[in-house]
Design a protein that fits this description.
Length: 619
């Protein structure tokens, strides 16, 4: 097989001739640098290779020659660079590379690399291509010749190719690579840097563009939650660094990786944050502000998710990614308006499903979003995702339901979805029970739209507040059916729980005090008992009492409270009244409490998996 030339040799000669012609009347001639491997080439384009030259045309060869194998002559002049049997003991590498460095090119206009190449007999596994470096950062690799099994691939003689250089670049390098084994041969020749002039501008231009952030929630509670942000960017900029006023930076490095995603975690909602990218030629600032109710729990929950199907859910006769689904459930007592709400995963692909303007979901009802069209065997309303759902079944994944303003009203996250079965709430809508592998619930792989038994108790909130030497538990129920009692349970490490007390049916508002908590960490949960003996677990909730690692001073205080110990600028703290009500939130080691009324308060210091409580007096 032969590959037809994209650009005949005379194309480059024409460009060169035009540049030389205009050079007699201006400065265009100065923009031409060339490497044709001739001994007396004027203004040669410099090149380097990590592999020293060897051979003279036979097996193996990585050198300047006058002929090698089926290539008997150069594209221009009498010499060219040949590669024959690249994967050999002398090279000690299966892939050989040669780089042409144009150095500073920002003053050039319409700059481009042009080079000639020829390949004879490339088989399966043999590749030839290039990689363009702009300001030291690689662009996407391009394969020009890809060998095929069962027959050699050859070009139609010498072929010229052009690689444009964007005008924002300051420096440019062209790397040509050969991945080849055996008697096949390739050659390159007449490598040039061409431009229409040299009166361009070298003023600094940032090679980065920041995209629209995608914010998901690291928690879903009525209190202040923390956000996880994905910020896409286009391009790259050598020397660029990412800074943030709050949170932990992760993701790709725009100083080295083009077209990636910057991540920020641990950003409290209701505050203004700033992302800054500086270094190289960049000085970018991106304000990040999300309201306090950005992550607000609602009566609508993501009830079941199937990311790795093991059944034909959409009824098309196949088991594949088209059977992925997300089931929503209304655990409230009234209709839920879903008009223009969007469902999406953790990727930057936009909404997977958008609800109709008049969409409503009744109390106790489900809605199924399935990946591709078919006829699902479901007794609830369903819709088909736009294109596909694209759920990740072998790594971290998040599914988010957003209102028309972008706020998160329901969210599901997993590190690694189980193979062949869904993750489900049991009973339906029971977020406190957590998501369970479906086979552990009833032995089935999934149950799209099959409503389980109704919860006897609708728990609206469950909070745990550390006090000086005690812990206060508060929970509120919206509805109680066939409910008998709550058992309050405590554990030190979350493995074995002890019953602390039993509260029978009340007025929907429950309070319980633990006056003898463990030093340090305490884990609490509620076990709800039905009149028929059934049980539902809510929680757990974790709290830490003052472990002595943090102290506050002055105590008493009149204006400023200072924290000593291991408290960094990112640590979040809250101040509570003696009844547990939160009155102030702040970050770092100092708080202004001048506006608080005189009295006894408790400072709660929030960590990644626990919290500490310190008592102080405001005078």
């Amino acid at each position: 097989m032969r590959v037809k030339a994209m650009h005949p040799p005379y194309y480059a000669y024409l460009l060169l001739a035009l540049a030389l012609l205009t050079g007699t009347r201006g400065r265009a001639q100065d923009t031409i640098i060339r490497q044709n491997f001739e001994a007396a080439a004027p203004r040669p384009l410099s090149y380097t290779s990590p592999t020293p030259p060897y051979g003279s045309g036979g097996l193996p060869t990585w050198n300047v020659v006058t002929g090698s194998g089926a290539i008997a002559e150069a594209a221009e002049g009498t010499h060219f660079w040949a590669v024959r049997d690249a994967d050999n003991p002398t090279a000690a590498a299966p892939r050989l590379e040669i780089t042409f460095d144009a150095d500073t090119i920002c003053s050039l206009t319409s700059a481009r690399f042009v080079f000639a190449y020829r390949v004879e007999g490339y088989d399966g596994g043999d590749d030839f291509g290039y990689l363009l470096y702009l300001d030291g950062i690689p662009e996407e690799e391009v394969i020009l010749v890809d060998g095929r099994n069962g027959g050699g691939v050859s070009t139609d003689g010498w072929v010229y190719d052009t690689v444009p250089i964007p005008g924002t670049a300051h420096t440019a390098r062209l790397l040509l690579f050969f991945d080849q084994n055996g008697d096949d041969v390739a050659g390159i020749d007449d490598v040039q840097l061409l431009a229409t002039g040299n009166d361009g501008s070298c003023r600094p231009v940032c090679g980065l563009r920041l995209g629209e952030p995608l914010a998901s929630c690291e928690g879903m509670s009525p209190d202040a939650d923390e956000l996880f942000l994905q910020i896409p960017y286009a391009g790259a900029e050598a020397g660029a660094r990412v800074y943030s006023s709050t949170g932990r930076i992760g993701g790709d490095d725009p100083g080295r990786v083009p077209d990636g995603t910057i991540t920020l975690s641990g950003l409290p909602e209701g505050e203004v944050h700033v992302l800054q990218v500086s270094g190289g030629d960049c000085d970018l600032t991106l304000p990040l502000e999300y309201p306090a109710d950005w992550c607000a729990p609602s009566d609508l929950v993501i009830n079941e998710v199937l990311a790795d199907p093991g059944e034909d859910i959409n009824g098309d006769g196949y088991i594949n990614g088209g059977d992925e689904f997300v089931e929503l459930f209304n655990r409230g007592s009234t209709d839920y308006a879903l008009g223009q709400y969007t469902l999406q995963d953790a990727s930057q692909s936009g909404p997977r499903y958008t609800f109709a303007p008049d969409a409503l979901l009744g109390p106790g009802q489900s809605f199924l979003v399935v990946a591709s069209s078919g006829a699902p065997d479901a007794d609830c309303a369903y819709g088909v995702a736009s294109g596909f759902l694209g759920l990740n079944n072998d790594g971290p994944e998040t599914v988010t339901l957003r209102d028309p303003d972008g706020r998160v009203v329901a969210q599901w996250s997993v590190d690694d979805a189980p193979a062949g079965e869904s993750l489900v709430l049991s009973p339906d809508g029971n977020l406190d029970g957590g998501y369970l592998p479906h086979t552990s619930v009833d032995g089935n792989r999934s149950s799209a739209c099959l409503t389980a038994a109704r919860l006897p108790v609708k728990l609206e909130s469950f909070t745990v507040t550390p006090l000086a030497a005690a812990v206060r538990l508060d929970w509120i129920t919206r509805e109680e059916i066939h409910h008998e009692a709550f058992l309050v349970e405590r554990s030190k490490a979350g493995r074995r729980y002890t019953v602390l007390g039993r509260l029978t049916t009340g007025n929907g508002h429950y309070v319980f005090f633990d006056y003898a908590p463990f030093p340090g960490q305490n884990i609490y949960r509620l076990r709800q008992i039905d009149t028929d003996g059934g049980e539902t677990v809510y929680g757990p909730r974790l709290v830490r009492l003052d472990s002595g690692t943090v102290r506050v001073y002055p105590n008493p205080t009149t204006a400023t409270l200072t924290l000593s110990g291991t408290v960094g600028p990112e640590v979040q703290s809250t101040i509570h009244r003696s009844d547990g009500r939160r009155v102030l939130s702040f970050r770092g080691a100092q708080a202004n409490v001048r506006s608080l009324p005189a009295g006894v308060y408790y400072l709660r210091i929030r960590g990644e998996a626990s919290s500490e409580s310190v008592r102080f007096i405001k005078e």
